[in-house]
Amino acid sequence: MSDHSDKQPLAELLALAGSGASPVQLALIVLGAALATFVFAKLAVFTANSIRMARGLAKIPSAPGGIPLLGHVIPMITCVRRNKGAWDIMEEWMDATGPIVKYNILGTQGVVVRDPTAMKRVFQTGYKMYEKDLELSYRPFLPILGTGLVTSDGALWQKQRMLMGPALRVEVLDDIIRIAKKAVDRLCEKLQPHAGSGQPVNIEEEFRLLTLQVIGEAVLSLGPEECDRVFPQLYLPVMNEANHRVLRPYRMYLPTPEWFRFRSRMAKLNSFLIDLFRRRWQARQSAGSKPKPADILDRIMEAIEESGAKWDSALEQQLCYEVKTFLLAGHETSAAMLTWSTFELARNTEATSKVVAEADVAFGPGGEREASRRAVDEMLYTLAVLKEALRKYSVVPVVTRKLAEDDPVGLLGHPLPRGIMIACHLQGTHRLYESPEEFRPDRFMPDGEYDQFDDAIRAYMFLPFIQGPRNCLGQHLALLEARVVLSLLQRRFAFTLAPGSAPAHGHGHGSLPAVSAATVANGLDLRHPTVIPVGPIGGLNVLLESRS
Length: 548
Ligand code: HEM
Fold this sequence. Notes:
Blueprint: H1 9-17, H2 23-56, H3 73-78, H4 86-97, E1 100-105, E2 108-113, H5 116-125, E3 130-132, H6 142-145, H7 154-164, H8 170-191, E4 201-202, H9 203-220, H10 224-247, H11 257-286, H12 296-307, H13 313-345, H14 349-363, H15 373-377, H16 380-393, E5 399-403, E6 407-411, E7 414-416, E8 421-424, H17 426-430, H18 449-452, H19 455-458, H20 475-492, E9 493-497, E10 541-546
Parallel strand pairs: 2-8
Antiparallel strand pairs: 1-2, 3-5, 4-10, 5-8, 6-7, 9-10
Helix pairs in contact: 8-9, 8-20, 9-10, 9-13, 10-11, 11-13, 13-16, 13-20, 14-16, 14-20
The structure holds protoporphyrin IX containing FE.
Cofactor: heme
Keywords: Heme, Iron, Membrane, Metal-binding, Monooxygenase, Oxidoreductase, Transmembrane, Transmembrane helix
Organism: Gonium pectorale
Protein backbone atom coordinates (compact mmCIF):
# COMPACT_ATOMS: atom_id res chain seq x y z
CA MET A 1 0.00 0.00 0.00
CA SER A 2 1.26 3.48 -0.75
CA ASP A 3 -0.33 6.76 0.11
CA HIS A 4 0.98 10.39 -0.01
CA SER A 5 2.28 10.37 3.55
CA ASP A 6 4.59 7.37 2.85
CA LYS A 7 6.49 9.19 0.11
CA GLN A 8 10.13 10.12 0.66
CA PRO A 9 10.80 13.90 0.76
CA LEU A 10 12.63 13.69 -2.56
CA ALA A 11 9.70 11.85 -4.16
CA GLU A 12 7.39 14.56 -2.84
CA LEU A 13 9.62 17.20 -4.32
CA LEU A 14 9.64 15.36 -7.65
CA ALA A 15 5.88 15.29 -7.63
CA LEU A 16 5.75 18.97 -6.76
CA ALA A 17 8.32 19.91 -9.37
CA GLY A 18 6.24 18.18 -12.07
CA SER A 19 7.23 15.33 -14.30
CA GLY A 20 8.75 17.58 -16.98
CA ALA A 21 11.79 18.71 -14.86
CA SER A 22 15.23 17.35 -15.76
CA PRO A 23 17.50 15.82 -13.03
CA VAL A 24 19.74 18.92 -13.18
CA GLN A 25 16.76 21.22 -12.66
CA LEU A 26 15.58 19.05 -9.77
CA ALA A 27 19.02 19.10 -8.19
CA LEU A 28 19.03 22.91 -8.49
CA ILE A 29 15.59 23.11 -6.89
CA VAL A 30 16.76 20.95 -3.96
CA LEU A 31 19.93 22.98 -3.59
CA GLY A 32 17.99 26.25 -3.78
CA ALA A 33 15.52 25.08 -1.15
CA ALA A 34 18.33 23.97 1.16
CA LEU A 35 20.16 27.27 0.70
CA ALA A 36 17.00 29.30 1.31
CA THR A 37 16.28 27.33 4.51
CA PHE A 38 19.89 27.86 5.67
CA VAL A 39 19.84 31.62 4.97
CA PHE A 40 16.41 31.95 6.57
CA ALA A 41 17.53 30.08 9.70
CA LYS A 42 20.70 32.21 9.92
CA LEU A 43 18.69 35.41 9.52
CA ALA A 44 16.21 34.31 12.16
CA VAL A 45 19.02 33.54 14.65
CA PHE A 46 20.79 36.81 13.79
CA THR A 47 17.58 38.83 14.23
CA ALA A 48 16.69 37.12 17.51
CA ASN A 49 20.23 37.74 18.81
CA SER A 50 20.22 41.35 17.65
CA ILE A 51 16.91 42.01 19.42
CA ARG A 52 18.16 40.27 22.58
CA MET A 53 21.37 42.33 22.60
CA ALA A 54 19.60 45.60 21.74
CA ARG A 55 17.23 45.01 24.69
CA GLY A 56 20.18 44.26 26.96
CA LEU A 57 21.86 47.51 25.93
CA ALA A 58 18.68 49.63 25.97
CA LYS A 59 19.69 51.78 28.95
CA ILE A 60 23.16 52.61 27.66
CA PRO A 61 23.45 55.90 25.72
CA SER A 62 24.03 55.47 22.01
CA ALA A 63 26.99 56.95 20.13
CA PRO A 64 25.97 59.92 17.99
CA GLY A 65 25.75 59.66 14.20
CA GLY A 66 24.31 56.15 13.78
CA ILE A 67 21.91 55.40 10.91
CA PRO A 68 19.50 52.46 10.42
CA LEU A 69 21.07 49.20 9.15
CA LEU A 70 24.61 50.58 8.75
CA GLY A 71 24.84 51.85 12.32
CA HIS A 72 28.07 53.76 12.99
CA VAL A 73 30.05 52.41 10.08
CA ILE A 74 30.29 55.70 8.16
CA PRO A 75 32.07 57.77 10.87
CA MET A 76 34.38 54.78 11.36
CA ILE A 77 35.54 54.60 7.77
CA THR A 78 35.54 58.29 6.92
CA CYS A 79 37.60 59.34 9.93
CA VAL A 80 40.91 58.63 8.15
CA ARG A 81 40.19 61.55 5.82
CA ARG A 82 40.19 63.78 8.90
CA ASN A 83 43.49 62.15 9.93
CA LYS A 84 41.79 60.47 12.88
CA GLY A 85 41.75 56.83 13.89
CA ALA A 86 38.58 54.84 14.61
CA TRP A 87 39.74 55.00 18.24
CA ASP A 88 39.72 58.83 18.08
CA ILE A 89 36.09 58.75 16.90
CA MET A 90 35.21 56.46 19.81
CA GLU A 91 36.84 58.95 22.14
CA GLU A 92 34.74 61.77 20.67
CA TRP A 93 31.66 59.64 21.37
CA MET A 94 32.65 59.29 25.02
CA ASP A 95 33.49 63.00 25.31
CA ALA A 96 30.01 63.79 24.01
CA THR A 97 28.02 61.07 25.76
CA GLY A 98 29.78 59.67 28.82
CA PRO A 99 32.17 56.94 29.97
CA ILE A 100 30.13 54.08 28.43
CA VAL A 101 28.61 54.35 24.98
CA LYS A 102 26.96 51.74 22.76
CA TYR A 103 27.57 51.43 19.04
CA ASN A 104 26.47 49.25 16.16
CA ILE A 105 28.64 48.48 13.16
CA LEU A 106 26.77 46.64 10.41
CA GLY A 107 24.80 44.70 13.02
CA THR A 108 27.73 44.06 15.37
CA GLN A 109 26.68 45.64 18.66
CA GLY A 110 29.07 46.73 21.32
CA VAL A 111 30.04 49.23 23.99
CA VAL A 112 33.12 51.38 24.39
CA VAL A 113 34.45 52.21 27.85
CA ARG A 114 37.34 54.14 29.36
CA ASP A 115 36.55 54.15 33.05
CA PRO A 116 39.17 52.38 35.25
CA THR A 117 36.52 50.44 37.19
CA ALA A 118 35.13 49.05 33.92
CA MET A 119 38.67 48.07 32.90
CA LYS A 120 39.06 46.22 36.18
CA ARG A 121 35.91 44.19 35.46
CA VAL A 122 37.02 43.28 31.92
CA PHE A 123 40.68 42.58 32.60
CA GLN A 124 40.59 41.20 36.12
CA THR A 125 37.42 40.21 37.95
CA GLY A 126 35.42 39.05 34.90
CA TYR A 127 38.27 38.20 32.51
CA LYS A 128 37.05 34.67 31.81
CA MET A 129 33.78 35.85 30.32
CA TYR A 130 35.37 38.80 28.48
CA GLU A 131 37.07 36.69 25.82
CA LYS A 132 39.50 37.72 23.12
CA ASP A 133 37.80 38.96 19.98
CA LEU A 134 39.40 36.67 17.44
CA GLU A 135 36.74 37.04 14.75
CA LEU A 136 37.29 40.71 13.98
CA SER A 137 40.35 42.53 15.31
CA TYR A 138 42.84 39.66 15.26
CA ARG A 139 41.50 37.81 12.23
CA PRO A 140 44.07 39.08 9.67
CA PHE A 141 46.86 37.95 12.01
CA LEU A 142 45.55 34.45 12.63
CA PRO A 143 47.38 32.83 9.67
CA ILE A 144 50.63 34.07 11.25
CA LEU A 145 49.97 33.88 14.98
CA GLY A 146 47.56 30.90 14.93
CA THR A 147 46.99 29.68 18.47
CA GLY A 148 49.94 31.60 19.93
CA LEU A 149 49.49 33.34 23.28
CA VAL A 150 48.00 36.58 22.02
CA THR A 151 45.41 34.86 19.81
CA SER A 152 44.33 31.86 21.89
CA ASP A 153 41.73 31.56 24.60
CA GLY A 154 40.39 29.20 27.28
CA ALA A 155 42.26 26.07 28.32
CA LEU A 156 44.85 26.21 25.53
CA TRP A 157 45.78 29.80 26.42
CA GLN A 158 46.07 28.89 30.11
CA LYS A 159 48.34 25.94 29.36
CA GLN A 160 50.52 27.99 27.03
CA ARG A 161 50.74 30.92 29.45
CA MET A 162 51.96 28.56 32.20
CA LEU A 163 54.55 27.16 29.81
CA MET A 164 55.75 30.50 28.37
CA GLY A 165 55.46 32.71 31.47
CA PRO A 166 58.58 31.49 33.28
CA ALA A 167 60.65 31.79 30.09
CA LEU A 168 60.40 35.59 30.30
CA ARG A 169 61.28 35.91 33.96
CA VAL A 170 64.24 37.13 35.93
CA GLU A 171 67.32 35.59 34.29
CA VAL A 172 66.19 36.48 30.78
CA LEU A 173 65.83 40.06 31.90
CA ASP A 174 69.49 40.12 32.97
CA ASP A 175 70.45 38.95 29.47
CA ILE A 176 68.31 41.68 27.92
CA ILE A 177 70.54 44.44 29.33
CA ARG A 178 73.58 42.90 27.64
CA ILE A 179 71.74 42.23 24.36
CA ALA A 180 70.18 45.71 24.24
CA LYS A 181 73.54 47.36 25.01
CA LYS A 182 75.24 45.56 22.11
CA ALA A 183 72.36 46.50 19.81
CA VAL A 184 72.46 50.20 20.75
CA ASP A 185 76.26 50.27 20.43
CA ARG A 186 75.87 48.91 16.86
CA LEU A 187 73.19 51.52 16.13
CA CYS A 188 75.46 54.31 17.42
CA GLU A 189 78.21 53.17 15.06
CA LYS A 190 75.73 53.11 12.18
CA LEU A 191 74.45 56.60 13.00
CA GLN A 192 77.85 58.19 13.65
CA PRO A 193 78.44 59.23 9.99
CA HIS A 194 75.15 61.14 10.07
CA ALA A 195 76.16 63.21 13.10
CA GLY A 196 76.57 66.87 12.12
CA SER A 197 75.89 66.02 8.47
CA GLY A 198 72.49 67.73 8.32
CA GLN A 199 71.20 64.46 6.81
CA PRO A 200 67.91 63.38 8.39
CA VAL A 201 67.61 59.85 9.74
CA ASN A 202 64.29 58.05 10.08
CA ILE A 203 64.83 56.95 13.65
CA GLU A 204 61.57 54.97 13.78
CA GLU A 205 62.87 52.61 11.09
CA GLU A 206 66.14 52.21 13.02
CA PHE A 207 64.24 51.40 16.22
CA ARG A 208 62.22 48.77 14.39
CA LEU A 209 65.36 47.05 13.16
CA LEU A 210 67.00 47.33 16.58
CA THR A 211 64.04 45.91 18.52
CA LEU A 212 63.76 43.06 16.04
CA GLN A 213 67.46 42.28 16.55
CA VAL A 214 67.02 42.36 20.32
CA ILE A 215 64.01 40.05 20.33
CA GLY A 216 65.64 37.80 17.67
CA GLU A 217 68.70 37.36 19.89
CA ALA A 218 66.73 37.08 23.14
CA VAL A 219 64.34 34.46 21.80
CA LEU A 220 66.44 32.50 19.28
CA SER A 221 70.07 33.63 19.77
CA LEU A 222 70.09 34.92 16.20
CA GLY A 223 72.98 37.23 15.37
CA PRO A 224 72.22 40.74 14.02
CA GLU A 225 73.23 39.77 10.47
CA GLU A 226 70.94 36.76 10.50
CA CYS A 227 68.08 38.90 11.90
CA ASP A 228 68.65 41.50 9.19
CA ARG A 229 68.78 38.74 6.57
CA VAL A 230 65.76 36.65 7.56
CA PHE A 231 63.25 39.05 9.05
CA PRO A 232 63.13 41.89 6.50
CA GLN A 233 62.69 39.28 3.73
CA LEU A 234 60.18 36.95 5.32
CA TYR A 235 58.71 38.23 8.54
CA LEU A 236 58.25 41.97 7.92
CA PRO A 237 56.45 41.56 4.55
CA VAL A 238 53.94 39.06 6.01
CA MET A 239 53.24 41.41 8.91
CA ASN A 240 52.83 44.30 6.46
CA GLU A 241 50.30 42.31 4.45
CA ALA A 242 48.40 41.35 7.63
CA ASN A 243 48.26 45.04 8.58
CA HIS A 244 46.84 45.90 5.13
CA ARG A 245 44.18 43.24 5.65
CA VAL A 246 42.85 44.95 8.78
CA LEU A 247 41.23 47.69 6.71
CA ARG A 248 40.92 45.64 3.51
CA PRO A 249 39.73 42.22 4.70
CA TYR A 250 38.94 41.11 1.12
CA ARG A 251 42.73 40.73 0.64
CA MET A 252 42.49 37.61 2.82
CA TYR A 253 40.39 35.86 0.18
CA LEU A 254 41.37 37.23 -3.26
CA PRO A 255 44.07 35.06 -4.88
CA THR A 256 46.18 38.03 -6.03
CA PRO A 257 49.97 37.81 -6.59
CA GLU A 258 50.40 39.34 -3.09
CA TRP A 259 48.22 36.59 -1.63
CA PHE A 260 50.49 33.92 -3.14
CA ARG A 261 53.63 35.78 -2.02
CA PHE A 262 52.18 35.94 1.51
CA ARG A 263 51.63 32.17 1.52
CA SER A 264 55.05 31.38 0.17
CA ARG A 265 56.84 33.70 2.62
CA MET A 266 54.85 32.21 5.49
CA ALA A 267 55.85 28.70 4.40
CA LYS A 268 59.53 29.72 4.20
CA LEU A 269 59.44 31.46 7.57
CA ASN A 270 57.77 28.47 9.21
CA SER A 271 60.27 26.04 7.77
CA PHE A 272 63.19 28.29 8.84
CA LEU A 273 61.84 28.28 12.39
CA ILE A 274 60.92 24.60 12.55
CA ASP A 275 64.31 23.62 11.18
CA LEU A 276 65.94 25.72 13.93
CA PHE A 277 63.70 24.12 16.63
CA ARG A 278 64.54 20.59 15.47
CA ARG A 279 68.29 21.21 15.50
CA ARG A 280 68.06 22.76 18.94
CA TRP A 281 65.85 19.98 20.33
CA GLN A 282 68.13 17.24 18.96
CA ALA A 283 71.21 18.96 20.37
CA ARG A 284 69.51 19.09 23.78
CA GLN A 285 68.53 15.42 23.65
CA SER A 286 72.03 14.27 22.67
CA ALA A 287 73.83 16.48 25.22
CA GLY A 288 74.93 14.50 28.29
CA SER A 289 74.14 17.11 30.92
CA LYS A 290 71.47 19.76 30.93
CA PRO A 291 72.87 22.82 29.10
CA LYS A 292 72.58 26.27 30.65
CA PRO A 293 69.71 28.03 28.83
CA ALA A 294 71.07 30.46 26.26
CA ASP A 295 67.82 32.15 25.29
CA ILE A 296 64.04 32.15 25.64
CA LEU A 297 63.68 29.17 23.28
CA ASP A 298 65.96 27.10 25.53
CA ARG A 299 63.83 28.03 28.51
CA ILE A 300 60.63 27.06 26.70
CA MET A 301 62.22 23.73 25.70
CA GLU A 302 63.22 23.15 29.30
CA ALA A 303 59.58 23.70 30.35
CA ILE A 304 58.41 21.29 27.61
CA GLU A 305 60.82 18.62 28.90
CA GLU A 306 59.65 19.14 32.46
CA SER A 307 55.98 18.90 31.42
CA GLY A 308 56.70 15.51 29.78
CA ALA A 309 55.05 16.62 26.51
CA LYS A 310 55.90 14.57 23.41
CA TRP A 311 57.86 16.33 20.65
CA ASP A 312 55.74 16.03 17.53
CA SER A 313 54.62 18.10 14.58
CA ALA A 314 51.69 19.62 16.54
CA LEU A 315 54.14 20.84 19.19
CA GLU A 316 56.49 22.21 16.52
CA GLN A 317 53.58 24.10 14.97
CA GLN A 318 52.52 25.53 18.33
CA LEU A 319 56.08 26.61 19.09
CA CYS A 320 56.21 28.29 15.70
CA TYR A 321 53.08 30.32 16.55
CA GLU A 322 54.52 31.27 19.94
CA VAL A 323 57.85 32.44 18.53
CA LYS A 324 56.16 34.51 15.80
CA THR A 325 53.93 35.98 18.53
CA PHE A 326 56.99 37.05 20.53
CA LEU A 327 58.56 38.57 17.43
CA LEU A 328 55.40 40.51 16.59
CA ALA A 329 54.42 41.52 20.11
CA GLY A 330 58.00 42.28 21.05
CA HIS A 331 59.30 44.69 18.44
CA GLU A 332 56.86 47.15 16.84
CA THR A 333 55.31 48.18 20.15
CA SER A 334 58.74 48.78 21.68
CA ALA A 335 59.89 50.67 18.58
CA ALA A 336 56.83 52.96 18.77
CA MET A 337 57.50 53.66 22.46
CA LEU A 338 61.15 54.54 21.72
CA THR A 339 60.15 56.73 18.77
CA TRP A 340 57.67 58.84 20.74
CA SER A 341 60.13 59.15 23.64
CA THR A 342 62.81 60.39 21.23
CA PHE A 343 60.33 62.83 19.69
CA GLU A 344 59.50 64.33 23.06
CA LEU A 345 63.10 64.46 24.29
CA ALA A 346 64.12 66.28 21.09
CA ARG A 347 61.83 69.10 22.26
CA ASN A 348 62.75 69.05 25.93
CA THR A 349 66.36 69.71 26.93
CA GLU A 350 65.72 69.51 30.67
CA ALA A 351 64.21 66.02 30.45
CA THR A 352 67.01 64.96 28.08
CA SER A 353 69.74 66.02 30.49
CA LYS A 354 68.14 63.95 33.26
CA VAL A 355 68.09 60.89 31.00
CA VAL A 356 71.73 61.46 29.98
CA ALA A 357 72.71 61.84 33.64
CA GLU A 358 71.11 58.46 34.41
CA ALA A 359 73.02 56.86 31.53
CA ASP A 360 76.27 58.26 32.98
CA VAL A 361 75.54 56.73 36.36
CA ALA A 362 74.49 53.31 35.06
CA PHE A 363 76.94 52.83 32.16
CA GLY A 364 79.81 55.17 33.05
CA PRO A 365 80.50 58.59 31.46
CA GLY A 366 81.54 57.08 28.11
CA GLY A 367 78.69 54.55 28.14
CA GLU A 368 81.33 51.81 28.07
CA ARG A 369 80.40 49.84 31.21
CA GLU A 370 78.03 46.87 31.45
CA ALA A 371 75.23 48.00 33.76
CA SER A 372 73.81 45.71 36.41
CA ARG A 373 70.12 44.97 36.62
CA ARG A 374 69.97 47.05 39.76
CA ALA A 375 71.63 50.03 38.07
CA VAL A 376 69.07 49.92 35.25
CA ASP A 377 66.21 49.51 37.74
CA GLU A 378 67.40 52.73 39.34
CA MET A 379 66.96 54.74 36.12
CA LEU A 380 63.67 56.07 37.40
CA TYR A 381 63.49 59.20 35.27
CA THR A 382 64.19 57.36 32.00
CA LEU A 383 61.48 54.89 32.97
CA ALA A 384 59.12 57.80 33.66
CA VAL A 385 59.85 59.24 30.19
CA LEU A 386 58.98 55.89 28.58
CA LYS A 387 55.81 55.50 30.62
CA GLU A 388 54.71 59.03 29.83
CA ALA A 389 55.27 58.35 26.12
CA LEU A 390 53.10 55.23 26.46
CA ARG A 391 50.44 57.25 28.25
CA LYS A 392 50.38 60.27 25.97
CA TYR A 393 50.54 58.34 22.69
CA SER A 394 48.79 55.08 23.71
CA VAL A 395 50.59 52.99 21.08
CA VAL A 396 47.90 50.33 21.57
CA PRO A 397 44.90 52.69 21.80
CA VAL A 398 42.17 50.10 22.19
CA VAL A 399 41.81 46.35 22.84
CA THR A 400 38.61 44.49 22.13
CA ARG A 401 36.83 41.65 23.90
CA LYS A 402 33.67 39.66 23.25
CA LEU A 403 31.30 38.82 26.10
CA ALA A 404 30.90 35.02 26.21
CA GLU A 405 27.97 34.97 28.68
CA ASP A 406 25.52 37.43 30.22
CA ASP A 407 27.34 39.56 32.79
CA PRO A 408 24.87 40.50 35.55
CA VAL A 409 27.43 42.82 37.17
CA GLY A 410 28.39 44.42 33.88
CA LEU A 411 30.18 47.73 33.45
CA LEU A 412 29.48 50.97 35.30
CA GLY A 413 26.20 49.65 36.69
CA HIS A 414 24.94 48.30 33.35
CA PRO A 415 24.43 44.52 33.15
CA LEU A 416 25.50 43.32 29.69
CA PRO A 417 24.14 40.64 27.36
CA ARG A 418 26.30 37.85 25.92
CA GLY A 419 27.65 38.27 22.40
CA ILE A 420 28.39 42.00 22.48
CA MET A 421 31.80 43.48 21.73
CA ILE A 422 33.63 45.58 24.30
CA ALA A 423 36.13 48.18 23.13
CA CYS A 424 38.40 48.90 26.10
CA HIS A 425 39.57 52.38 25.29
CA LEU A 426 43.05 52.52 26.79
CA GLN A 427 43.75 55.87 25.12
CA GLY A 428 40.58 57.26 26.73
CA THR A 429 41.75 56.11 30.17
CA HIS A 430 45.14 57.71 29.54
CA ARG A 431 43.42 61.04 28.92
CA LEU A 432 41.89 61.06 32.40
CA TYR A 433 45.06 62.79 33.65
CA GLU A 434 45.57 66.49 34.30
CA SER A 435 46.33 68.35 31.01
CA PRO A 436 46.58 64.99 29.22
CA GLU A 437 48.03 66.43 26.01
CA GLU A 438 51.13 67.65 27.87
CA PHE A 439 54.23 65.47 28.16
CA ARG A 440 55.13 65.36 31.86
CA PRO A 441 57.37 62.45 32.90
CA ASP A 442 57.08 63.60 36.52
CA ARG A 443 53.60 62.08 36.61
CA PHE A 444 55.35 58.70 36.91
CA MET A 445 58.05 59.71 39.40
CA PRO A 446 57.55 58.70 43.07
CA ASP A 447 54.62 60.69 44.58
CA GLY A 448 53.72 62.02 41.14
CA GLU A 449 50.21 62.18 39.70
CA TYR A 450 50.05 58.42 39.15
CA ASP A 451 50.85 57.63 42.79
CA GLN A 452 48.09 60.01 43.89
CA PHE A 453 45.31 57.94 42.31
CA ASP A 454 43.16 55.92 44.68
CA ASP A 455 44.52 52.43 45.47
CA ALA A 456 41.35 50.82 44.08
CA ILE A 457 41.84 52.21 40.57
CA ARG A 458 45.53 53.14 40.27
CA ALA A 459 46.56 50.02 38.34
CA TYR A 460 43.75 50.65 35.85
CA MET A 461 44.74 54.25 35.18
CA PHE A 462 47.84 53.21 33.21
CA LEU A 463 47.10 50.41 30.77
CA PRO A 464 49.64 50.26 27.94
CA PHE A 465 50.18 46.58 28.80
CA ILE A 466 46.59 46.14 30.07
CA GLN A 467 46.24 44.37 33.47
CA GLY A 468 45.13 41.07 34.95
CA PRO A 469 45.83 37.47 33.93
CA ARG A 470 46.14 38.37 30.23
CA ASN A 471 48.49 41.27 30.71
CA CYS A 472 51.51 41.72 28.46
CA LEU A 473 54.04 39.00 29.13
CA GLY A 474 56.88 41.11 27.74
CA GLN A 475 56.32 44.36 29.63
CA HIS A 476 59.36 44.10 31.90
CA LEU A 477 61.53 43.05 29.00
CA ALA A 478 60.26 45.97 26.90
CA LEU A 479 60.83 48.61 29.59
CA LEU A 480 64.26 47.27 30.47
CA GLU A 481 65.41 47.15 26.86
CA ALA A 482 64.04 50.63 26.21
CA ARG A 483 65.79 52.16 29.23
CA VAL A 484 69.13 50.89 27.95
CA VAL A 485 68.52 51.96 24.34
CA LEU A 486 67.00 55.38 24.98
CA SER A 487 69.50 56.50 27.59
CA LEU A 488 72.62 55.35 25.72
CA LEU A 489 71.44 56.85 22.45
CA GLN A 490 70.70 60.17 24.15
CA ARG A 491 74.09 59.94 25.84
CA ARG A 492 75.85 59.62 22.51
CA PHE A 493 73.84 62.05 20.33
CA ALA A 494 71.82 65.25 20.69
CA PHE A 495 68.65 64.90 18.61
CA THR A 496 66.64 67.62 16.90
CA LEU A 497 63.55 67.21 14.76
CA ALA A 498 64.29 67.52 11.05
CA PRO A 499 62.22 70.09 9.16
CA GLY A 500 59.21 68.12 7.81
CA SER A 501 60.30 65.94 4.96
CA ALA A 502 59.77 62.38 3.84
CA PRO A 503 61.88 59.87 5.75
CA ALA A 504 65.47 59.62 4.55
CA HIS A 505 65.22 55.87 4.07
CA GLY A 506 62.54 53.29 4.63
CA HIS A 507 58.86 53.99 4.18
CA GLY A 508 57.92 54.74 7.76
CA HIS A 509 54.72 53.65 9.36
CA GLY A 510 52.35 53.11 6.46
CA SER A 511 51.89 54.98 3.21
CA LEU A 512 50.60 58.38 4.27
CA PRO A 513 52.77 61.44 3.65
CA ALA A 514 55.06 62.66 6.42
CA VAL A 515 53.85 65.60 8.50
CA SER A 516 56.39 68.20 9.48
CA ALA A 517 57.50 67.01 12.91
CA ALA A 518 59.47 70.17 13.62
CA THR A 519 56.51 72.49 13.11
CA VAL A 520 53.88 70.42 14.91
CA ALA A 521 53.18 71.89 18.33
CA ASN A 522 51.74 68.72 19.82
CA GLY A 523 52.91 65.30 18.67
CA LEU A 524 49.36 63.96 18.91
CA ASP A 525 48.72 65.40 15.43
CA LEU A 526 51.45 63.15 14.04
CA ARG A 527 49.84 59.87 15.08
CA HIS A 528 49.11 57.38 12.35
CA PRO A 529 45.33 56.96 12.05
CA THR A 530 45.13 53.32 10.95
CA VAL A 531 48.12 51.29 12.12
CA ILE A 532 48.50 49.72 15.58
CA PRO A 533 50.94 50.09 17.27
CA VAL A 534 50.52 53.77 16.59
CA GLY A 535 53.69 55.53 15.45
CA PRO A 536 54.20 58.88 13.69
CA ILE A 537 52.84 59.18 10.15
CA GLY A 538 55.71 58.67 7.73
CA GLY A 539 58.19 57.82 10.48
CA LEU A 540 60.27 60.30 12.47
CA ASN A 541 63.09 62.24 10.84
CA VAL A 542 65.75 63.53 13.18
CA LEU A 543 69.09 65.32 12.88
CA LEU A 544 72.00 64.22 15.05
CA GLU A 545 74.96 65.91 16.70
CA SER A 546 77.59 63.99 18.65
CA ARG A 547 77.81 64.83 22.34
CA SER A 548 81.30 65.34 23.64
C1 HEM B 1 56.02 48.81 24.67
C2 HEM B 1 55.96 47.55 24.38
C3 HEM B 1 54.70 46.72 24.48
C4 HEM B 1 53.39 47.09 24.57
C5 HEM B 1 52.82 48.50 24.59
C6 HEM B 1 52.61 45.87 24.65
C7 HEM B 1 51.23 45.84 24.77
C8 HEM B 1 50.49 44.68 24.94
C9 HEM B 1 49.06 44.65 25.11
C10 HEM B 1 48.15 45.87 25.14
C11 HEM B 1 48.70 43.36 25.24
C12 HEM B 1 47.28 42.83 25.43
C13 HEM B 1 46.62 42.54 24.10
C14 HEM B 1 45.21 42.02 24.24
O1 HEM B 1 44.86 41.52 25.30
O2 HEM B 1 44.45 42.09 23.28
C15 HEM B 1 49.90 42.56 25.14
C16 HEM B 1 49.93 41.19 25.22
C17 HEM B 1 51.08 40.44 25.03
N1 HEM B 1 52.36 40.91 24.85
FE1 HEM B 1 52.92 42.83 24.83
N2 HEM B 1 53.46 44.80 24.59
C18 HEM B 1 54.75 45.26 24.49
C19 HEM B 1 55.90 44.51 24.42
C20 HEM B 1 55.95 43.13 24.41
C21 HEM B 1 57.14 42.33 24.33
C22 HEM B 1 58.56 42.89 24.26
C23 HEM B 1 56.75 41.01 24.31
C24 HEM B 1 57.56 39.74 24.22
C25 HEM B 1 58.79 39.60 24.36
C26 HEM B 1 55.31 40.99 24.42
C27 HEM B 1 54.55 39.85 24.49
C28 HEM B 1 53.19 39.82 24.70
C29 HEM B 1 52.43 38.60 24.80
C30 HEM B 1 52.97 37.18 24.68
C31 HEM B 1 51.09 38.98 25.03
C32 HEM B 1 49.89 38.07 25.20
C33 HEM B 1 49.68 37.75 26.67
C34 HEM B 1 48.48 36.84 26.87
O3 HEM B 1 47.45 37.01 26.23
O4 HEM B 1 48.60 35.97 27.75
N3 HEM B 1 54.86 42.29 24.48
N4 HEM B 1 50.98 43.39 24.97
